[in-house]
Specification:
The protein has 483 residues and is mainly beta. Helices cover 8% and strands 33% of the residues. The strands form seven sheets. The protein has a six-stranded mixed sheet with strand order 2-1-10-9-8-7, with no helix packed on it. It is globular.
Length: 483
C-alpha cells in the first residue's frame, strides 16, 4: 500500500525551484570590498617600490600608506590616542653614545579627548569620514609617500603634540593618533616626523618615540642622559639617527652639543633601546667648543635599489662621511670648502644654520651661508670636489634645501621660497612676502615627486602647509584642519 506522504514528497522534489533575490545592497557591498582589496594591493606595491630621497634638511622622507579611517568600513576601526610606554634611561659608556639594554615598561592606553585614528593601508575609502584634526594645529614637520599619502606633526589645542594625515596630498586632513610627548623642551618632547612604511614611524627631536602599528600606539625610547636626536632617516628596513650630547634648554634643544654619534637599528625593533648600535666611523664626533656648537646633517641617497644607496654625514669640522645604508663603517669621502661648515643649530629644529646638504640623482647639493651670502655647490663625484654655482640672490636667511628632478633646486628662506630650474645657474623668488602675505618665511621645503612638493611656514600659527603640484611653478597654502 502506497503511503500518501510519499506522493506528496515526490511532487515537492519535482517542482521548479524559485531562487530568492539577494538582500538590497548586496552587489554594492561586494563591489566596495573589491575596490578596497585592489586599493590595498596597489598601495602595497607602491610602498615596495618606494625610493628614499634625502635627509633631515632636504626633502621629506619616503614613508608608508598614511590614510584615514572612516565610518567603520571593512577592516577599519576607530582608535584612541593609543598606549604609551617609557624605557628607563641610563648613562651610556663614555667612549660612545651607544646605549645598554634596559627593560621596558608598558602602560595601559590613555583616554582620548577626541577621536583619533591609526595609519592603515586598509582605509582608502571613498566614503572616508575620518577623525577631527586638533584645533589650532601648528605644523612643524611633514613627510609623504607616493603622490598622495602623508602626515604632519605639530602642536594642537588642547591635546598638545598632534598628528594629521592626508590621503589626497593636502587637499583634506584628518586626525591621527600621536605620541604623548609634548613640544621640544630640553631633552623632552618631539618636533619632527618620519615613517618607513604603514606600520613603522618615528617622532623625534629631541626625544625619540616609535610606533610599530601605524600610530595606534607609541613607545618612548630611553636615550642616554644628555642625548638628543637631532636628525633621523629611514630606508630599506633600517632607521639611522644622529644622537648628540647637548646642554640646550627649551626649544633650543640642539644648542651646546659637544659630540655626535650616528646610531642605527632595524626599524622593526627600533622601539627597544637595546636594538640601537653606533655606526663605525661616526662615533663621538667632536663639535668643537660650546660657543661654536654644530649639528650634523644626515643625507641618505638611493637609486632604484635602496640597498645600493649611501648615507652622507656632514660633520661639524667639514668632513663628509659616507657609507652603505646597512650600518657599515663610514669613511671620509671628502671635505666641504671653507665657509660651508654646518654651523650652530637653528632655533627649534636642530638643523644647521650655515650649511644644508641634500642628494638627488647622483649629485650632492650643498648650500653655504657662512660667507654672508648664499652659495650653491654641486658635487657629482661623491663629495671629492665642490664646483660653485652663481651666487644666489639674497632673500633672507636660508633654512632648508631641496632638489628635485629636471635640475630643480629650491631654497626655503626667512623671506620666501627661492627656486632654480637649471641646477643653480639662474634663480627666481617663487613665494615672497608680498605673494604669501606678511611673515611668509619658511622653515622647511622638500620635493616628494618630480612635480609635487611641500613647504612649512616658519610661523606655525598660520596653521598651514604650502603645496606645489607643478614642479614649483606655483605654490598654494593648505590649512591643516578637518574639512
Amino acid at each position: 500500500m502506497t503511503d500518501p506522504n510519499d506522493d506528496e514528497l515526490d511532487r515537492w522534489l519535482n517542482e521548479d525551484v524559485q531562487l530568492l533575490p539577494p538582500a538590497p545592497g548586496t552587489f554594492e557591498r561586494v563591489r566596495s570590498r573589491a575596490r578596497h582589496r585592489k586599493a590595498r594591493q596597489a598601495l602595497a606595491s607602491a610602498a615596495a617600490l618606494a625610493v628614499v630621497i634625502v635627509g633631515g634638511v632636504s626633502a621629506p622622507a619616503i614613508i608608508s600608506s598614511l590614510t584615514s579611517q572612516g565610518g567603520q568600513e571593512p577592516g577599519q576601526e576607530t582608535l584612541a590616542d593609543g598606549s604609551t610606554g617609557t624605557i628607563a634611561p641610563s648613562v651610556s659608556p663614555p667612549s660612545t653614545l651607544s646605549p645598554q639594554p634596559q627593560p621596558s615598561t608598558t602602560h595601559p592606553p590613555s583616554p582620548a579627548s577626541s577621536p583619533t585614528v591609526k595609519l592603515s593601508p586598509s582605509a582608502l575609502s571613498p566614503h572616508r569620514a575620518g577623525a577631527a584634526v586638533a584645533g589650532s594645529f601648528q605644523p612643524t614637520s611633514i613627510t609623504f609617500v607616493s603622490s598622495r599619502l602623508g602626515a604632519v606633526i605639530g602642536q594642537g589645542q588642547p591635546a598638545g603634540t598632534s598628528l594629521a594625515g592626508t590621503d589626497d596630498y593636502g587637499r583634506s586632513w584628518f586626525g591621527v593618533s600621536a605620541p604623548a610627548a609634548g613640544a621640544p623642551d630640553g631633552a623632552n618632547g618631539v618636533s619632527q616626523l618620519r615613517f618607513l612604511n604603514e606600520a613603522e614611524g618615528f617622532a623625534f627631536g629631541p626625544a625619540l618615540w616609535v610606533t610599530e602599528d601605524g600610530g595606534a600606539s607609541w613607545v618612548q625610547v630611553g636615550l642616554p642622559s644628555g642625548v638628543r636626536v637631532t636628525d633621523l632617516e629611514t630606508v630599506d628596513g633600517q632607521v639611522l639617527a644622529v644622537w648628540g650630547r647637548c646642554q640646550g634648554g627649551g626649544t633650543d634643544f640642539a644648542v651646546d652639543c659637544n659630540r655626535f654619534t650616528l646610531e642605527t637599528a632595524a626599524a622593526a625593533s627600533a622601539g627597544q633601546r637595546s636594538a640601537w648600535r653606533p655606526v663605525p666611523g661616526a662615533i663621538a664626533l667632536h663639535a668643537g667648543s660650546s660657543s661654536a656648537s654644530a649639528v650634523l646633517t644626515l643625507s641618505a641617497g638611493a637609486t632604484t635599489d635602496p640597498s645600493s644607496g649611501t648615507v652622507y654625514l656632514l660633520a661639524p669640522d667639514g668632513r663628509l662621511l659616507a657609507g652603505g645604508l646597512t650600518g657599515q663603517r663610514l669613511a671620509v669621502a671628502g671635505r666641504v670648502p671653507a665657509g660651508c661648515l654646518p654651523g650652530p643649530p637653528q632655533h627649534g629644529t636642530g638643523t644647521p644654520s650655515l650649511a644644508q646638504l641634500t642628494y638627488q640623482s647622483g649629485s650632492l647639493y650643498l648650500l653655504c651661508s657662512g660667507s654672508g651670502q648664499m652659495v650653491l655647490r654641486v658635487s657629482t663625484d661623491g663629495g671629492q670636489s665642490w664646483p660653485q654655482q652663481p651666487a644666489v640672490p639674497q632673500h633672507g636667511t636660508a633654512t632648508s634645501l631641496a632638489a628635485g628632478g629636471s635640475s630643480l633646486v629650491i631654497i626655503a628662506t626667512t623671506e620666501g621660497l627661492v627656486e632654480s630650474t637649471d641646477n643653480g645657474q639662474t634663480w627666481r623668488l617663487a613665494v615672497s612676502q608680498g605673494r604669501g602675505g606678511p611673515g611668509t618665511g619658511f622653515s622647511y621645503v622638500g620635493m616628494t615627486t618630480p612635480s609635487q612638493g611641500v613647504a612649512l611656514p616658519a610661523d606655525t600659527s598660520r596653521h598651514e602647509v604650502w603645496i606645489t603640484r607643478d614642479g614649483g611653478q606655483s605654490w598654494r597654502p593648505s590649512a591643516v584642519r578637518s574639512r
